[in-house]
Amino acid sequence: MSKRVTFLGIILLLLAFRNKNVVLLLQFLILLEVFFKAKINSQAIKYAVILALPIFIAGSYGLYRFPVYDVLKDCFYFLNPVLFLILGFRLGRVVGNEKTFVIWCILFGTLLSCVHIVTVIFIDGFDSILDPRVLRDEYDIRNYVLSVAALFLLTVYTFIWKQRFLGQFFWVFFFLNLFSLYLSGSRSDILLFLCALLSAFTLISRYRLLIILFIAMAVLSSWYSIQMLPESNKTVEVLKRSLSELSFTAATDAEERNSYYRGWESYRTWITYRSGTTWEQLAGHGMGAMADLGVKMILGGEDAEPRQFIPFMHNGYMYLLLKTGLIGILLFGIFFYSVFRQALRIRKREIIMVASFLFAILVTNVLIATIFNFAYVTFWLLVGAFLCYADIPKVIRKKQYDQNVA
């Protein structure tokens, strides 16, 4: 195994375990790379600057108003898309070839799927197959984001691009990653996978409208079927209340606040945002700003202290709006728009892959703040890598692949 693949593997496995300290260490190393080596593709810097501008504006304003620790903590979250986009570019250059990069992402993702499956069965036996959500809630056993990415890459490269990297072992790898995703009991990760897949099929097909209508009908039918099921286990119960949790509502009592927490949290964040001055609505309340829930609540477990002010929200758009205002929304919108526009115009494989990842990030950002969530930086890394490969001519990629194999 070459040093390049080893380097890729170390980065992917470090990110796989959703550890905040690991992500912080990698952020520091990426900053050192940018400032002292500066061998980053100019395209990466262009995209990174667009995403970094809100950090500079909101960070400067936040330092005048809030404790330094709170400001730095927000900067940590906002730097995730910026720095891991750059790291993705860097990994793309280091590995050199798209095919090599994709194969090793699939291999490492499948390895982590096996770890997840064995862990689940060892702890809960085969009972978890019928109700995977119980294990997630009671033991906090989670799947790996790289496994979700591996499943997406396997599906797209096999059924859209007609490339079978793994030959006769394809179905083994496919079902291992699919089974791991099911055992995760994670609505967000399942939606992340489905949105990326829908985007890829839609962008590559000439029959976009028909595909969208078919998917919409399938989703509505599935949702209606779920509502008809009896609440026989935890998984069904969670699925049935998925939409109600997002209801943008002013809850009046403790029961409503618990039932509609994510939607109520977004509502309270909106109220906090609107309470600001004209400048704060335009440029944000600043890094370090917190949403006022209006009442004290126990968040994050029974042993946690009751809190009225929260620094981070499930809804990533409300988080972005509170901290950076309309300017931040506009700049992030420019970034996403420029990539999607390029995908529709060029219809190049790498750009379509980037657009698919970004579409999944945009949709799930309402649920888990995927844009900023340190647990999902793997997707930003993949965005950076495929943007890198979109800029490398095919002849050079072929030469780099031959060098890696040698």
| Helical coverage, percent range | over 70%
Shape: globular
Strands of the biggest beta sheet: in what spatial order?
A: 1-2
Low-confidence stretches: 394-406
Separation of the first and last Cα atoms: 10 Å
Number of strands: 2
- Average pLDDT rating: 78
Strand content: under 5%
- The helix/strand class is mainly alpha
Explain what you see.
The protein has 406 residues and is mainly α. The protein is built from 19 helices and 2 strands. A two-stranded antiparallel ribbon has the order 1-2. A hairpin with a 7-residue loop joins strand 1 and strand 2. The longest helix is centred in the last third of the chain and has 31 residues, at 316-346. It starts with a helix and ends with a helix. The model is unreliable at 394-406 (pLDDT under 50).
Element layout with pairings:
Elements: H1 3-16, H2 20-37, H3 42-63, H4 68-95, H5 98-124, H6 132-139, H7 145-159, H8 170-184, H9 187-204, H10 208-228, H11 234-240, H12 242-245, H13 254-259, H14 261-274, H15 278-283, E1 291-298, E2 306-310, H16 316-346, H17 349-368, H18 377-391, H19 394-405
Antiparallel strand pairs: 1-2
Helix pairs in contact: 1-5, 2-4, 3-4, 3-16, 4-18, 5-7, 5-8, 7-8, 7-9, 9-10, 9-17, 14-16, 16-17, 17-18
